[in-house]
Amino acid sequence: MKLVFALLVAGLSAVAVHSAAVKEQETNVDQTFLNIQTDVLRLLEHVNQPSFYPDFVEIGNSYNISSNSSNYTNQTAVQNFLQYYNYNSFLPRGAVFSVFYREQLQQAIALFRLFYYAKNYETFYRTAVWARQNLNEGLFLYSYTVAVVHRPDTRNIVLPPIYEIYPYYFFPAEVIQQAYIYNQQHGGHANQEVYTITSNFSGYYLNLPREQSLLSYYLEDIGINSYYYFFNVYYPFWLDSEEFGLQNVNRGEQYYFFYQQLLARYYLERLSNGLGEVPYWDTNVPFETPYYPSLEYANGLDFPSRPAFANLYEYFYNYGQSWTTRGVSGYSRLLVNDYERRISDAVDSGYVFSEQGRVSLYSENGRNILGNLIQANPDSPNYRYYGAVWLYASHLLGYSPQPLNSNQVAPSALEQFETALRDPAFYSLYNRVLIPLQRYFINQGPYNRSDLVFPGVEIRNFSSDRLVTYDDPFYANITNAVFHSSQEHEEHDFNVRVQQNRLNNRPFTYRVTVQSERETRAVIRVFLGPRYDEYGRNINISQNRFNFVLLDYFVYELQSGENVISRNSYDSSLYGQDVTSYRDLYRQVLSGSGSQQSFARSRQNYFRFPQRFLLPRGSVQGTPYQFYVIAYPYQPRESQLNQDFRSYFYPYVGKEQFYDSYSLGYPFDRPIVFDQLFYDVPNSYFYETQVYHRENINAVHQD
Ligand SMILES: *[C@@H]1O[C@H](CO)[C@@H](O)[C@H](O)[C@H]1NC(C)=O
Ligand SMILES: *[C@@H]1O[C@H](CO)[C@@H](O)[C@H](O)[C@H]1NC(C)=O
Ligand SMILES: *[C@@H]1O[C@H](CO)[C@@H](O)[C@H](O)[C@H]1NC(C)=O
Ligand SMILES: *[C@@H]1O[C@H](CO)[C@@H](O)[C@H](O)[C@H]1NC(C)=O
Ligand SMILES: *[C@@H]1O[C@H](CO)[C@@H](O)[C@H](O)[C@H]1NC(C)=O
Ligand SMILES: *[C@@H]1O[C@H](CO)[C@@H](O)[C@H](O)[C@H]1NC(C)=O
Ligand SMILES: *[C@@H]1O[C@H](CO)[C@@H](O)[C@H](O)[C@H]1NC(C)=O
Ligand SMILES: *[C@@H]1O[C@H](CO)[C@@H](O)[C@H](O)[C@H]1NC(C)=O
Ligand SMILES: *[C@@H]1O[C@H](CO)[C@@H](O)[C@H](O)[C@H]1NC(C)=O
């Protein structure tokens, strides 16, 4: 599920990442790094209001991009930015920002390019401070974050958690409101205490429909949502891979695998709650699942909600609104249907129409091309013709009203990356978006036995500790949600935090016993999948292969004879700890205590699915799931042959993040001739297990 397949391969030994990292000599970060890290933290504080820091105020008032234009390496980018600025076309402060609206996206790209092409860090910094003080806050936050992650001189920096920078998108309006009330009563009184608000998931106060109410702990988890946001910061759908050095990355394939795994993970969670497959979205009938976000934008505007059985016909959807003058979103249903038809035609005919001619899809690079086509990124062979289904589908299902004009938009939760996963419709939407890809794999024909066996290698046994999940109180600092006065700024006297119960699991170890006839290098993939459907019927693997979640993926040096591979749940490079909080980052910076390695570990966590959600919740009496393990021969990609894997400790642009030359979804991406065959592959193993849920950590230890 990861961008980060990289690291473990240090020397290709099976040493757990953990111990490898510990043994390595920790190196102190230098002062330059600490200064930049401090700048980033200061810039992102209270981003919704102009800063009171005197140095920021000074730069905000005096810096002049036009007269300093020689400090940028791309004059086209500077001129493009200045056009927006001089014509006063930037989104005003206070307005809601969303990259799902074309005019706002263009502004964000212009600002990102200006940041990206700043000649040195000093220029980038001045530009950023100026933009923070003068441009729209959402626009600044987005472009700045993308720039920090992509600029060579800042990509080692650790960003604070997005849910602490912008709490509005992560906590319900009731929580933000309580913070305001507390501030009005207690702010500005040199009060050093930290006030704690207990946050509940939606469904605590509102009588919500079943799916949203049962699954709100998953849909609204701040870690999962922040993971999704960062995937989109790292691989923005509009980023041109040639211009920004991504061209060697299998971006399209990663796109597909990322979403497929999100869908599979959600299905496992549904099973724990007695629900089955995600409802299929048929554009011809009203959309059943309603959504009530309980979220408010910082300017007070509510996130739009969607009623049950929302009618998506254009006539109903646009009733009483202008069709012609307010952009294309009113035509979303038409566009979704047109683009989908063309993509299906490409998949079944085997050819994509590019502007230069036909491109074959059933080729070595085919799944990557198709992924780019479906994401509709600048690497798409033909954006005009195949369009962005997901974009128009998000307008449609989000059920937001058409914008009044390009500066007054009311985006739905689906139209912000920070909140998209909160709406259950997200999963129906991407289920449908990925159908052409599933069809593509089916068209390639089933795997036969020789595609799966690894001669001479046999998995003899598998065992695992008991799998237990529990509710774990978590704290997040939401001080940034409250506007503060210059006095509060100086005294730093106001602190609010949120306490929220989040799922977690007890660490567990599992052991795989592998018999090998010889010394050989193997790739091991470990999956967790469903065992029975929601009615308790046996799962048919061929039909459920898209519901297996990759838990672990590593290279192992098999010895001749018996090998017992022991792995801990913490060893998987695909899952990460919670992102380092504002407070801990500040502490590390001020004390100078962080090492390069500790910052690197913090940074990785952004790109990893939260470890807390490694397991689905399960139930008190136990919910059945199954492990699936497969060992197959290690074959590096051509481009990996002479590379040092250790340098890919975290993802960054232009580096590859996979282990080997097999498809990311192997062996579940293609169908199989006979379901039974899966059980007949000696180098693989199924193991049925149960996941137990306990209310709190004390009960966990009694198990
Ligand atoms: C660049 O901007 C600074 C303000 O930050 C200003 O003092 C300086 O004169 C500008 N440089 C030029 C060459 O105009
Ligand atoms: C920035 O400098 C240009 C000259 O390069 C000048 O025309 C413009 O008025 C200056 N802008 C501000 C806000 O001072
Ligand atoms: C400069 O920026 C423009 C867009 O503003 C972009 O099209 C072009 O590729 C960039 N040039 C270079 C050399 O990066
Ligand atoms: C920006 O350019 C001016 C000259 O145009 C130069 O004096 C100044 O030092 C540069 N600033 C930075 C941060 O490079
Ligand atoms: C969350 O629920 C608890 C009771 O379980 C309640 O005391 C608290 O006020 C609720 N929080 C909010 C923000 O409504
Ligand atoms: C198995 O399928 C592969 C293609 O996936 C093909 O090359 C091979 O010949 C097939 N083997 C058998 C025994 O049918
Ligand atoms: C497999 O491992 C389990 C747990 O260690 C053990 O009880 C069982 O006997 C083993 N089975 C075989 C066939 O070795
Ligand atoms: C699984 O489903 C496939 C496709 O419908 C079918 O051919 C096969 O017989 C099923 N296998 C089992 C064990 O039910
Ligand atoms: C909370 O965040 C604010 C703003 O980033 C910071 O000033 C404050 O020290 C933090 N408080 C705690 C208790 O972490």
From TrEMBL:
InterPro entries hit by this protein: Di-copper_centre_dom_sf (IPR008922), Hemocyanin/hexamerin (IPR013788), Hemocyanin/hexamerin_mid_dom (IPR000896), Hemocyanin_C (IPR005203), Hemocyanin_C_sf (IPR037020), Hemocyanin_N (IPR005204), Hemocyanin_N_sf (IPR036697), Ig_E-set (IPR014756)
Domain Hemocyanin C-terminal: 446-693
Keyword presence, Methyltransferase: no
Family matches, as Pfam families: Hemocyanin_C, Hemocyanin_M, Hemocyanin_N
Extent of the signal sequence: 1-19
Domain named Hemocyanin middle: residues: 161-434
Molecular function as annotated in GO: nutrient reservoir activity
GO cellular component: extracellular space
Protein name (Swiss-Prot/TrEMBL): Hexamerin
Keyword Signal carried by entry: yes
Record keywords, A-Z: Signal, Storage protein
Ranges for domain Hemocyanin N-terminal: 33-155
Source taxon at top rank: Eukaryota
PANTHER family registered for this protein in UniProt: FAT-BODY PROTEIN 1-RELATED, LARVAL STORAGE PROTEIN/PHENOLOXIDASE
